[in-house]
Amino acid sequence: MSNIEQGKSGLPRFYVDVRDRQGTLRRAVLSEARQSDMPQDWTCEWVTFWARSDFDCEAIIKMEYRNHLMGLIRFAIYPYPCDEPEFVYIHNVESQITQKR
After folding, report:
1. Domain range holding 81?
2. What string of DSSP letters covers 24-78?
């Protein structure tokens, strides 16, 4: 299986290897998050981040394993607008709490 495929939205989905609690290698998916993916009970205020994001230069991606949300990353690409972005700035990163994994 390829590590990259076209997602439903037209943006790529990336497959990444992760280890579970027992140390077994598993395959998770990184893809574009939707507003409905934003949790309301995590430490970061993802619903607010979604509302305030400038999606011309920012994005929120999710990591899922077996269709279960495991983490979110909010980032921006700068400078914007630009034909050749120079860097990615990670605004927020959060994973699902251990007890719910």
Report:
1. 4-100
2. -EEEEEEEE--GGG--SSSSS-HHHHHHH--TTTEEEEEEEETTEEEEEEEEEEE
